[in-house]
């Protein structure tokens, strides 16, 4: 126990954990400060005090004595059993519906990660093994569940009992990240952390990007050439009004984010409410900071900070006669002509 980072209890109902053995192991693990995950069989009372149980839908129904139709019923049953047996959390595996993580403070539904299913052998083992390994390595439970979900999606896409290699899990998370590019700062930092684990160079630029025009496209393309992944910090509507005036933005934040996310050069869009992106730059610590050459480097927000930790600052060539303000001026002129 002293050499373990986490403890997994699973005997497939064959009797190894019969009697008081499970309770004794959980007690010793908790005394040593070790995370305990259990693949439960039979009466859950023997698992009192475990940090996590990972039943499938059928096992949860048997333990609760209820018919579980829908996620709300599953969540309610898991929460009742969590409280009755003094558990830290319950992670219910739901096959094509993904997984549902239930903790005292709330729940989180993770959609199924598999693209194609060939063989479900070992999927449950993969979930509990990857989750316990991740928590043992210092991950939070929600992050560990995301990793386990990705790993399970990999193994069911292979024939026979199989393993999910770390590079495969990272690639799966990367693919998931591409489907949803607009993220909160917290989620963006997690995505950036995964990119760094792959040795990728992170670029950063920012702006209002109201009425995307060729100048914007050139800036984004210039920035993306210098990095492996490009993060775009996007002013929210209130900060655009403070910077540009009460008639702006023309497009709301959701529309501007959607257009940016559709650009091939953009890998991540992070909205922010402040007048400058300095807090994002300090949190993300990009390897490359890019701004248009209509600024001098000493005027670029974050340039000094990026230079200080060894990052690079580049100024992108500016396309003449292309700006949102100029476009709006031409539209007003055409309307009044």
Can you walk through the features of this model?
With 337 residues, the chain is α/β, with parallel strands linked by helices. It is built from 13 helices and eleven strands. It has helices at 21-31, 57-64, 71-84, 123-136, 141-155, 166-179, 185-197, 214-225, 237-244, 253-261, 278-284, 303-308, 324-336; strands at 6-9, 35-38, 52-53, 89-93, 99-103, 106-110, 202-207, 229-235, 268-272, 288-292, 312-316. A five-stranded parallel sheet has the order 9-8-7-10-11. Strand 4 (89-93) and strand 5 (99-103) form a beta hairpin. Helix 2 (57-64) packs across helix 3 (71-84). The protein is elongated and about 80 Å long. The mean pLDDT is 88.
Task: Summarize the SSE layout with pairings.
Layout: E1 6-9, H1 21-31, E2 35-38, E3 52-53, H2 57-64, H3 71-84, E4 89-93, E5 99-103, E6 106-110, H4 123-136, H5 141-155, H6 166-179, H7 185-197, E7 202-207, H8 214-225, E8 229-235, H9 237-244, H10 253-261, E9 268-272, H11 278-284, E10 288-292, H12 303-308, E11 312-316, H13 324-336
Parallel strand pairs: 1-2, 2-3, 7-8, 7-10, 8-9, 10-11
Antiparallel strand pairs: 4-5, 5-6
Helix pairs in contact: 2-3, 4-5, 5-6
Structural class designation: alpha/beta
**Poorly predicted sequence stretches spanning 5 or more consecutive residues:** none
Per DSSP E runs of 2 or more residues, the count of β-strands stands at 11
Strand content: 15-25%
Major sheet: order of its strands? 9-8-7-10-11
Q: Mean of the pLDDT scores?
A: 88
Q: What's the shape? A: elongated
**H/E series, N to C?**
EHEEHHEEEHHHHEHEHHEHEHEH
Give the assembly state of these chains.
Answer: single chain
**N- and C-termini, Cα separation:** 82 Å
> Over the alpha carbons, how many angstroms does the gyration radius reach?
25 Å
Tally of DSSP helical segments: 13
Helix content percent band: 40-55%
* Largest sheet features: 5 strands, parallel
